[in-house]
Amino acid sequence: MPLARRLASRDRVYVPDLPGFGRSAKVRRALTLPELADLLDEWMSSCSLGAAVMVGNSFGCEVVAELALRHPERLEAAVFLGPTIDRRHRNVWSQAWRFVATAVREPLGLARPLLADYLQAGVKRPLQTLRYALRDPLEAKLPRIAAPILVLRGENDAIVPQRWAEEVASLLPRGELRVVPGGAHVLNYDSAASVAAIVEAWNPAAEGG
Questions:
Q1: Which of 58, 60, 135, 141 is the most exposed place for a label (fewest CB within 10 A)?
Q2: Could you tell me which residues are beta bridge partners of residue 56?
Q3: SS3 letters for 64-114?
């Protein structure tokens, strides 16, 4: 919400809760990436939205990438904030360690909304969603995304190392990477002002012609 509020000062901004998370209806099981992408497409239709510029954080980047392949007409451009998951560390233990290493660099104020989100989602849903994220070959999808993508990595993000962020940007036909000074993983919360300024100054039409 901190980033959404800042971007909303200039553009119309929508912040959808995907099924099972936030205040949305709780479905019985965690939905797969294709299911989430298809439901996002349906939600856009229900809001009479055509193509849009999408901003995804962490696993949200994987959802946007899946949408770009399944429903390319929906994606005008996108911003990937801390895209997961580094293909060299695609296992639970490595991700758990990186989560802890990054968490200590996040602002204390993030703990309350993050805990509330996990409590609302329940225990099983985040764990199953993590399994889907770990199995998702993001690097194989990126070369097939035609839309311009701005990749942002927090300077202090242990979950998304610089090497992986550079690889993500290089695999995208119209990708660009920038590093947010002082930022960690949840850039839409911990670095909202900096991210908003970068996004508002970005010109997707100039990326790749």
A1: 135
A2: 80
A3: HHHHHHHCHHHEEEEEEECCCCCHHHCCHHHHHHHHHHHHCCCCHHHHHHH
Token digits for 137?
A: 């070959």
How far is C-alpha 173 from the chain's CA centre? Answer: 18
Average pLDDT score over the chain: 89
| Two structure tokens written together for 75 | 């994606």
Both tokens assigned to 67: 């949408």
Q: Which residue has the tokens 């849903």?
A: 125
CA–CA distance, 59 with 33 (Å, rounded to integer): 10
CA–CA separation, 107 vs 172, rounded Å? Answer: 31
Cα 176 to Cα 147: distance, rounded to the nearest angstrom: 12
Question: For residue 186, how far is the Cα from the chain centroid?
Answer: 9
Displacement of CA 103 from its chain's centroid (Å): 17
Is the separation of the CB atoms in 84 and 154 below 8 Å? no
CA distance 60 to 65: 9
C-beta neighbour count of 144 within 10 angstroms: 13
Q: How many C-beta atoms lie closer than 10 Å to residue 32's C-beta?
A: 15
Condensed to tens digits (0 to 9), the pLDDT of residues 79-90 reads 999 999 999 988
pTM of the predicted model as reported, rounded to 2 decimal places: 0.88
